[in-house]
Automatic annotation (TrEMBL), chain A:
SUPFAM superfamilies linked to this entry: PLP-dependent transferases
Database matches in Pfam families: Aminotran_1_2
Protein name: Aromatic aminotransferase
Keywords: Aminotransferase, Pyridoxal phosphate, Transferase
Gene Ontology BP annotations: aromatic amino acid family catabolic process; lysine biosynthetic process via aminoadipic acid; tyrosine biosynthetic process
GO molecular function, one term: pyridoxal phosphate binding
Residue ranges occupied by any Aminotransferase class I/classII large domain in the UniProt entry: 152-495
Names of the cofactor(s): pyridoxal 5'-phosphate
TrEMBL record, chain B:
UniProt organism field: Amniculicola lignicola CBS 123094
Lineage: Eukaryota, Fungi, Dikarya, Ascomycota, Pezizomycotina
Protein localization: Cytoplasm
Catalysed reactions, as listed in the record: an aromatic L-alpha-amino acid + 2-oxoglutarate = an aromatic oxo-acid + L-glutamate
GO biological process, one term: lysine biosynthetic process via aminoadipic acid
Family to which the UniProt record says this protein belongs: Belongs to the class-I pyridoxal-phosphate-dependent aminotransferase family.
Protein name according to UniProt: aromatic-amino-acid transaminase
GO molecular function, one term: pyridoxal phosphate binding
Enzyme class of the recorded protein, top EC level: transferase
Length: 507, 541
């Protein structure tokens, strides 16, 4: 692991000899290893070979060898002398809002040679390796250990191109055409839009306010009839355990344990898509904006304890956890990280080599400079606390607006404990034409009326993996993520008007 | 809570958004192309209007034929792929006064990035040293767009974008493409990729199904094989000469295709690297390209034209230093463009070419940005796929490239840069060729001077090997390879680039690159290679 040269890259950041290194996570003290998943891998994943060039690795790191081998361009021809970026200083994130004191981080072309940094532009902008830059990977591995501490020995992280890309690769690794994947009855639309072209069918599990209902999951799997379903019993489950998109639900710890036990019982492998994990919010809604907007120095922000992830209860290594920088730093970095057993991570690294290769080097070096050289592990946790405070303000503003403007008889909701979304349940049976036009008719009318009233809300059916399944309820998803809190009352008032006019409700 | 910026990205879905830059108020560097940029058409930047390269073309294409349709070879996967369902709401985002509680994009307020600075070389002062000494610092602020300083900023670029890439950079890319290739059909489009490796993966998924065979050069880019194999796709290698793949051979393979012997339907896809091919360094002449295109028409074959080395085309190698030096004179933009062998794209009357371009070899691989050019039908499918997988290149890379290419250098500055790179690579190529002339035993090794790219392809006359035919070609290759390593140099084995290792091979090659090492190391490396060869073949030094 001490190799300084990645082979394909001739760069400084690589350790291509991926399979032979130790767990790399510093968790050698745990004595159980992950199970093997050979029986669940797709044809595509099984056929995926390591690059033949890996054979060269040992040779290239030998300083006595003059390489006329790999054809990467010389960094001399990268027209970037340095890049710098202003970011909040770790200690000062305390001062909330963008008034935080800023520090400038700078990456020069040849910092490494000059002994200034472990990572510089000449290697970030060179071809890299499918694991992502070692420097950033080390930081995320340490972070994962601190936050999730997976209870088995041979887990690993890999830097990905964000969760959408990671999901695409995970599906290609674990499914063949015609197989079923279990998901929630309402789920993140891109997940099934990504899956269905692969010939993968999604079966939705019924939800309650804590996510998928364990007894339902058990029932579906226990009663699986291969002939009737024309497919093998599913071995893969996709879920968004925290601040679920679209329902806003967060699985309690108990729920997580129940689902994990069922996964063990039925040999299910779990795709844990958790981009909202760090945006966990307090249960209580503040009555007044002022309660939360006062700048509270960071040290005294009441930290919302993070619920344990599925990864952190994963004794078998059956969880493929996807984390993303999109919601916690910026989507335009197109970077995230996956944690799973080393067998599975190795398959993803191979898949990277013949697709995205690795995330943008600009993104990787900025993340490394920000996280590793500027903030450190604690600084990153402080940033999460800052986000939690900010999103709490937004959530509470939207909730107050809903209490005030939505007709209580028609609309109901739960307080989201994480993420970006609120899920409004519509008592559709109260609609004067409920019997005639049904759930879908009511949903459509509300959607259209809301647009006429000047507000866009998203119909629940858009999140249904299988739209042919009849629904019992009508839902709309609304978000507090990006709308300014001062506009929220107006937005919700319009939605309320639309509901009133559809349901002919007079208060 | 911070005062929000006046202009935010509007969510189209949870993972895509648009801003509305106003090209009228935005300061752009003026050069020829900018002067001609269509100014009236504001709607092209409109809310929720996906960036469509058609809006960025300058020439008129109405009189040209439309591309053929390719439904019959599109994979099931690509055919049934739908766009993002949340995009259904996009059309309403343009409605004045509408407030969206829809797409859940994070607010730029929570991006911990304020100001991005970048030191880059000035036009004409491109060397690393000059960039350091006289380079200029360009800056992107968080809210430059709202503050009318620029049409692209951190708030926009660091948020979700479109699978096609941002309108800002896509405009530049489309203009560049139009400047370089005279595309003979009407409905061509560009869309961004995250590099050609990914574009290859995505296009194979679009055009093939498991069990298919596709065509390519007999020695080919190893990653292409590694990408195809897990998809259940095998490659039929086409014999080559110094100008790359042989059209007659390709015609023959297709005309005599035996489905049962090959175990696959007749190929409908050609993967080719026409310029500075990896690994052979071969460059197809214009005539060769025309002939290949004709064969593709005859058998209705679709073409993936992978061209990362297109701008690394050099002057012919003359051997004498003075002539070589004169070839290094700067050329005008017109001469530079004129000197490039026309692309397959520019001969593509049918719209049967998907061209892959990449910034990897000309700016930097780490930016992970490239683009594809093809007919609208194909590009639309590509974008849909990007929407649900890569989501386009990193916004940060896009912002940086746009700052450099559009705001700072402009098209002309970029052509100057390409001219600079080309001169540099010409010099490097000359170094390796002179070293080969000086140090290699001509009786057992021969070569053709590469006209483009990064690779020098050395043919070994294995029949002269003392152990031939007791040892097989591959054994001799291995023996030489290890001996070269013993002598402290590394060259790549030709067999690593077999398009299909099931095929019989009666050639033995090594690939040497002149892309990265400094001149003295290239020379020394070749010298060591020569020593190893002499030893191996028992030739007196
Ligand atoms: C559940 C879920 N997964 C994944 C994503 C996208 O993540 P990324 O930006 O990392 O691709 C989103 C974004 O909305 C999401 O809600
Ligand atoms: C023929 C060919 N295509 C594609 C690539 C990779 O391009 P990109 O960096 O855009 O993925 C290479 C790089 O070696 C190459 O030689």
């Amino acid at each position: 692991m001490q190799h300084k040269n990645g082979f394909q890259s001739g760069s400084q950041n690589g350790d291509l000899d991926f399979t032979s290194c130790d767990a790399g996570n510093g968790c050698l003290n745990k004595n159980n290893f992950a199970k093997r998943w050979d029986h669940l891998l797709s044809k595509e994943a099984i056929t995926r070979q390591g690059s033949i060039f890996q054979a060269m690795h040992g040779t290239l790191v030998d300083p006595a060898i003059l390489s006329l081998g790999p054809g990467a361009p010389s960094p001399e021809y990268f027209p970037f002398d340095h890049t710098s970026l202003q970011v909040p200083s770790a200690r000062e994130i305390a001062v909330l809002g963008p008034n935080y004191a800023k520090v400038t981080l700078t990456a020069n072309k040849n910092d490494t040679r000059a002994g200034r940094s472990d990572y510089d532009l000449s290697s970030a902008l060179q071809y890299g390796v499918g694991t992502g830059a070692r420097q950033l990977l080390d930081f995320m591995t340490e972070h994962t250990k601190q936050v999730h501490n997976p209870p088995y020995q041979d887990w690993k992280c890999v830097i990905t191109g964000g969760n959408t890309s990671a999901l695409d690769l995970a599906l290609r690794t674990f499914t063949d055409r015609g197989s079923y994947v279990l998901a929630d009855e309402y789920t993140y639309a891109t997940a099934f839009e990504c899956a269905s072209p692969l010939g993968v069918k999604i079966l939705g599990i019924k939800l309650d306010e804590e996510g998928p209902i364990p007894s339902e999951l058990d029932r579906v799997l226990t009663g699986w009839n291969e002939d009737r379903m024309e497919s093998k019993k599913p071995h893969l489950m996709y879920m968004v355990p925290t601040g679920h998109n679209p329902t806003g639900a967060t699985q309690s710890l108990e729920r997580r344990h129940e689902i994990y036990r069922l996964a063990q019982k039925h040999d299910l492998y779990i795709l844990e898509d958790d981009p909202y994990y760090y945006i966990q919010l307090p249960a209580n809604v503040s009555e007044h904006v002022e309660d939360v907007t006062q700048s509270i120095p960071f040290s005294v922000v009441p930290k919302t304890d993070l619920l344990p992830s599925l990864l952190s209860i994963d004794t078998d290594g059956r969880v493929f956890r996807m984390d993303s920088f999109s919601k916690i730093l910026a989507p335009g970095l197109r970077t995230g990280w996956v944690t799973a057993s080393s067998q599975v991570v190795e398959r993803i690294v191979r898949a990277h080599e013949t697709s995205l290769q690795n995330p943008s080097g600009f993104s990787q070096i900025v993340l490394y400079k920000l996280l590793s050289e500027t903030w450190g592990q604690e600084g990153l946790m402080s940033w999460f606390s800052h986000l939690q405070v900010e999103y709490t303000i937004r959530r509470d503003a939207l909730l107050r607006a809903c209490q005030r403007y939505l007709p209580a008889k028609v609309a109901s909701w739960k307080v989201p404990r994480a993420g970006f979304f609120m899920w409004i349940k519509i008592n559709w049976l109260l609609h004067p034409l409920a019997r005639q036009i049904g759930q879908r008719g009511v949903e459509m009318q509300i959607y259209d009326t809301a647009i006429k009233a000047g507000v866009l809300v998203v119909p629940g059916t858009w999140f249904q993996p299988d739209p042919s399944i009849a629904l019992l309820d009508v839902f709309f998803r609304i978000t507090y993520a990006s709308l300014r809190p001062d506009i929220m009352p107006e937005a919700v008032e319009r939605f309320g008007e639309a509901l009133r006019s559809c349901f002919e409700v007079l208060d | 809570m911070a005062p929000p910026s006046a202009i935010e990205v509007s969510a189209v879905t949870d993972i895509s958004g648009v801003t509305i830059p106003d090209p009228l108020t935005a300061p752009v560097q003026s050069n020829d192309v900018y002067g001609r940029r269509r100014k009236a058409d504001k709607s092209q930047w409109g809310v929720a209007a996906p960036a469509d390269s058609v809006n960025f073309r300058h020439k008129s294409y109405e009189h040209k034929p439309k591309a053929k349709r390719w439904d019959h070879i599109i994979s099931h996967e690509a055919l049934i792929r739908k766009g993002n369902s949340l995009k259904k709401a996009a059309k309403y985002l343009g409605k004045p006064g509408i407030i969206s509680l829809g797409g859940g994009l994070p607010s730029s307020e929570y991006f911990p990035f304020q100001e991005l600075c970048l030191k880059v070389p000035q036009i004409g002062h491109f060397s690393e040293k000059e960039a350091q000494d006289t380079g200029i610092v360009i800056t992107a602020g968080k809210h430059d767009f709202a503050q009318e300083k620029s049409i692209f900023d951190i708030a926009t670029a660091f948020n979700y974008g479109q699978g096609s890439g941002s309108a800002q950079l896509l405009r530049w890319i489309t203009e560049h493409t139009e400047m370089v290739h005279d595309i003979p059909y009407q409905d061509w489009r560009c869309t961004m990729s995250i590099g050609s490796t990914s574009a290859l993966d995505m296009s194979l998924r679009m055009f093939t199904r498991p069990g298919d065979m596709i065509l390519s050069e007999g020695y080919t880019f190893a990653v292409a094989v590694e990408t195809a194999t897990p998809l259940g796709v095998r490659i039929a290698g086409i014999p080559m000469d110094a100008e790359g793949l042989l059209p007659e051979a390709m015609d023959h393979i297709l005309s005599t295709w035996d489905v049962s012997a090959r175990g696959s339907r007749k190929p409908h896809l050609l993967y080719t690297v026409p310029t500075g091919q990896n690994p052979t360094g071969a460059t197809q002449s214009k005539e060769r390209r025309l002939a290949i295109y004709k064969v593709c028409q005859k058998h209705n074959v679709y073409i993936l034209e992978d061209e990362p080395y297109y701008f690394l085309q050099m002057q012919p190698y003359t051997g004498t230093e003075s002539e070589a030096e004169s070839a290094l004179q700067k050329t005008s933009h017109a001469d530079l463009l004129q000197s490039l062998v026309p692309s397959l794209l520019s001969m593509d009357t049918d719209g049967r070419v998907m061209r892959l371009d990449s910034f990897s070899k000309v700016l930097s691989p780490g930016s992970r940005v490239g683009w594809v050019t093809a007919s609208q039908q194909i590009v639309t499918m590509y974008q849909k796929h990007a929407d649900v997988s890569t989501q386009g290149p990193a916004g940060m890379s896009q912002l940086i490239l746009w700052k450099l290419l559009d705001e700072h250098w402009g098209h002309e500055g970029y052509l100057d840069w390409l001219g600079y790179i080309r001169r540099e690579y010409t010099q490097r190529r000359n170094v390796i060729l002179r070293a080969c002339e000086k140090y290699l035993p001509r009786e057992v090794v021969s070569w053709v001077a590469p006209m483009a790219g990064m690779f020098h392809w050395l043919r070994i006359h294995f029949r002269a090997h003392p152990s031939y035919p007791t040892l097989s070609i591959q054994d001799i290759e291995e023996s030489i390879f290890l001996r070269v390593i013993d002598h402290g140099a590394l060259v790549m084995r030709g067999s690593w680039f077999y398009a299909n290792d099931q095929d019989e091979h009666d050639t033995l090659f090594f690939r040497a690159t002149y892309a990265a090492a400094p001149a003295e190391k290239i020379e020394e490396g070749i010298r060591r290679f020569g020593v190893a060869l002499r030893e191996e073949f028992g030739i007196e030094g």
